[in-house]
Batch of 4 targets.
Target 1
Amino acid sequence: MNIKKHIPNTITCCNLISGCIATYWAFVGVTYLALLFIVIGAVFDFFDGMVARLLHVSSPIGKELDSLADDITFGFAPSAIVFSYICTFHIHWPFIPFLAFIMAAFSALRLAKFNLDERQALGFIGLPTPANALFWGSLIVGLQDWGEDSSLFTLHSSLPYLVLIGTFISCYLLIAEIPMFALKFKTWGWKGNEVKYIFILSCIPLLLLLGVSGLAAIIAWYVILSVITTKKIKTN
C-alpha cells in the first residue's frame, strides 16, 4: 500500500471537515468561529495541492475531491453565514434568507469551470471561491461588531437586502470572464510583479485599520485592482 499517495487526499478531507465545522458555527450564529474554520480550510486547501506536486501523486480523484471540499468550505459555509445573519432580522418574507444559498450553487459552478479551464494556470478567470468565502465571513463579522454603530443603525432595516444584493454581485463575479491575478511569482523582482507587490503592501494598512473585517476590504480591493489591470492591458 502506497501511503504517500493518500496524504494529499487526507489534507483535502481536513479542508472538507473544516468547512463542515464552519457551517455548524454559522448556523448557531457564532460567525467569528465560522470564519476561523474557513481560514483553517483555506490553509489545508493551499497545502493539499502543494503536497501532491511535491510527492508527484496528483490524481483525478484528488481533483474531484478538492472541488467537493472547496464547495463545502468556500461555498456552503459562507452561504450559511449570510443565511444566519439575515435570519437575525425581522423580515416579512420568510423565504428571503434562503436566497443566500444561491452562492453555494454559483461556487460549485465556478469550481467546475476551473477544473475544465486551461487558461487559469497563472491567474484566475472570475473570483476564486476562497476569496469570496473570506470576504463574506469577515464582512459579516464586521457588521456584527459594528451593529451598535449609529451610522449603521440608520441602515438597520436595509442591511439584509443590501447583503443579498452583495451576494448576487459576488455570484456574478464567481463566474464572470474577468481575469484576476494570482499571487504566484516566477521572479521576485519588481518588474512584472508591480500589481502583486502593490496589492500586498496595501493589505497591511487595511488589516491594521479594520482588523478582521479588513479581509473583506482586501478582497474588494483585489477585485477592483484586477479589473483596473485588465482594462489597462486591453487599452494598451
Note: Strands lie at 123-125, 179-181.
Target 2
Amino acid sequence: MTSALLGADLGLPTSHLDDHAAYIASWLKVLRKDSRAIMTAAAKAEAAAGYLLRATGLDVSVEPEDQIREAA
C-alpha cells in the first residue's frame, strides 16, 4: 500500500497494476479473517509514505514555506 500511495503522490505510471491479482487475492484471505485489517494496513501505509516523502523533501501536502521552516 505504501508503494501505491507513493506512486500516486509522485505521479508514477500505473500500467503495472494489472499484474497484481495475486496480491489482491492475498488481501481477500486476510479480510475474510479480519474485516478491519485493511484499515490498519492503510493507516500504517499512509504513515510510512508520509515519513518517506518528508524525509526526501518530496512531501507535496506541505507548503514550501512550511518545509523550509521544518528544515531550519
Note: The mean pLDDT is 79.
Target 3
Amino acid sequence: MHDIRAIRDDPELYQKAWDAKGLSGARIVAQILDLDGQLRAAQTALQAAQAERNEASKKIGQAKAQKDEAEATRLMAHVETLKTTLERQTEAGREADELLKALLEGLPNIPAPDVPAGRDEHDNVEVRRRGEPFAIKSAKDHQSLGEALGLMDFEAAARMSGSRFVVLKGELARLERALGQFMLDLQTREHGYLEVAPPLMVRSETMFGTGQLPKFSDDQFAAFPGLETARAVAPGEWAAAPELRWMIPTAEVSLTNLVREQITPEEDMPFRLTALTPCFRAEAGASGKDTRGMIRQHQFNKVELVSITAPEQSAEEHERMVGCAEAVLKRLDLPFRTMLLCAGDMGFSARKTYDLEVWIPSEDRYREISSCSNCGDFQARRMDARAKKSGEKGTRFVHTLNGSGLAVGRTLVAVMENYQDEGGRIAIPQALHPYLPGMTHIGGQG
C-alpha cells in the first residue's frame, strides 16, 4: 500500500519506479493525482457547506428570536439547498475515495534505489556463486529417479487430486521429512528464529495484508463451508463473506500478520520468526510451465523466514536473512548462486529481492529455490502494523521481510539429482545423517 502524501510530494519518483516495473508510470500517477484532487475538492466543498449550514442554522434562531419570519423562512430554504449540496459532495468524496483506494491497493511496491533496472529474469544480476556443478554422466531427472526406485508416484496423486501433486513413499518420504526438520533446526538453533506453528487457513484481510489479495486471487485456493457460498462470492466481495478462508500460499502470510493492527516496541525488534508448513498455490499464471516433476506443485512444504524490524534495521536484516537461507545449501553442499533481481522481475510486495538458485543437473541450469525480500513498509501499511519507541508519543510503520529457508520439495529435487549415481541410487548428504540414522543412500545401502 502506498502513502498518498508521498506520491503527492514526489510524483516523479513513483512514475519512474512504476515505469521500471513495466507499468505506465505517467498514466498511473496522473490518475492517482486526479482522484486525489477530486477527493480533496469534495472534502473542501463538504466542509464549506457544513460551515455555511451551521451559520445559517444559527441565523435562523436569531431571526425567529427577532420574529423575522420572512428571513427565517429564507434561511430554512437555504439550509435545505445546502443539504442537497452536502449529500452530493459526500457521495462525490466517497466515490473518489473508493476509486483511489482500489487503484492504490493494486499497485506494486516501488523498487529500492540500488535495485538494477530490467524487465525480466534475463536482467537479474549475479552477486555470488558457490560450488561447481557436479560432474554427472547422463544425469537423470528426479522424476525418473524417484519412479525407478518405486518411491515417487505421480499417477496415484493424479487419480486422487489431479495434476501438480505427488505421492512420496518410504525412504524418499523420510528424506523429505528430514530435510524440513534439518532446515527448521538450523534456523532456530543457530540463526535465532522463533519457531511458530501458524494457521494454514486465513481470512481475506490477512491475505490482503501481505499482498496476495486482491490482485492475485486467481493464484490462491479458497476454502468455503459450502458450494453455494463459493458460487455466491465474487472478487471484491470477500469482506462480505466472513466464512471464507484462504489456504496459505506461504507461511509468510500467517507469520507477518502476527503484528497486524499491533503497536510493537521498537526495543524488541527485530522479530525473527520461522515455520515449516504446507503451502498451497493454484499456479493459475503458470499454465504449461514445469508440468513434469515436483518443481511447480499445488501443494508443497516450505520453511519460511520472516523478520519484523524498525525501518533502520531492514537493509542489514535483509542481508542476514539471505545468509541464513544460503547456509542450508552450504550445509547440504549443493552448488548455487545468489541473484539480485531487477525491478521488473520482483514480486508485488517486494522492495528488494535476492533469489537463491540451485544447480539442477538434468536441466543443466540453475533454478530458484529461495526468494528473500525486503518489503519496507509496504505490507505494514496494508496491515496497520506499527512500532513505537519507548518514551516517544508517535508511531511509525514497521518494515517486513520474508524468505524461503528453503522450499523443501525443490531442495529434495536438488539433492536427488546432484547426489545420484550411475546405478540410480541417491547418496544422503552428510548434514542429514543425524536425521536418517543408519542410512547412507536412498535405494540400497552403500
Note: The first strand starts at residue 125 and ends at 130.
Target 4
Amino acid sequence: MKDTRNALLEATNTVILRDGIAHLTLEAVAKEAGVSKGGLLYHFPSKEALIRGLLEHYLALFEAELSRRTAHDPDAQGRFSRALIGATFDADPHQPLLRAGLLAALALNPELLKPVRVAFEGYQQRIEGDGLEPAHATLLRLAADGLWFADLLHLAPPAGALREQLRQRLLALSNRGID
C-alpha cells in the first residue's frame, strides 16, 4: 500500500514538473504511476488530495530530519535553530516534490497550503522556545527560510564556498547570539 501511495506521489510530482499544472489530471497521474484510475482513487480521491499528499509527505520527511538532528545535538540552547539551519542547507536544492506541491496548491486552491502554514507556525513556536532570545532565533529562522525559498524558486541561491560560509555564520549565531 505504502509503495503504491509513494509511487502515486512521485507520479504526481513528475506530471506537474514535466507537463505543468494545467496537465495534472487523475488520469495522467494513474498512467504515469502505472496503476488504474481506481487504484489512484483508493489512495487519493481527488486532485486536491494528491496535492495535499505531496505537501504532507514532504513536511513529514523534513520533520523527521529535524527530529534526527535535534536528537543528536547535546547543547539544548539553540538546538532547534541548528537543526533547522542544517536541514535547510542540506536539503536537496531542487526539492521537486515540494516545489510541485506548492506550485500546484497555489494554482489550484491556496487553502491546500494550510499544512505548510501550520508547519511554519510550529517552527516559529519551537524557535521561540529554543533558549535563544526570540527575536534572535526568529532572525535565524527567517534567514534559513530565505535560503529555502531561493533554492526552491531558483532565485539566485548561494552556492559553493559562499553557501558554506553562510551556513557557518548562521550556526555560529545559533551558538552565541547576535552582538
Note: The two ends are 52 Å apart (CA to CA).
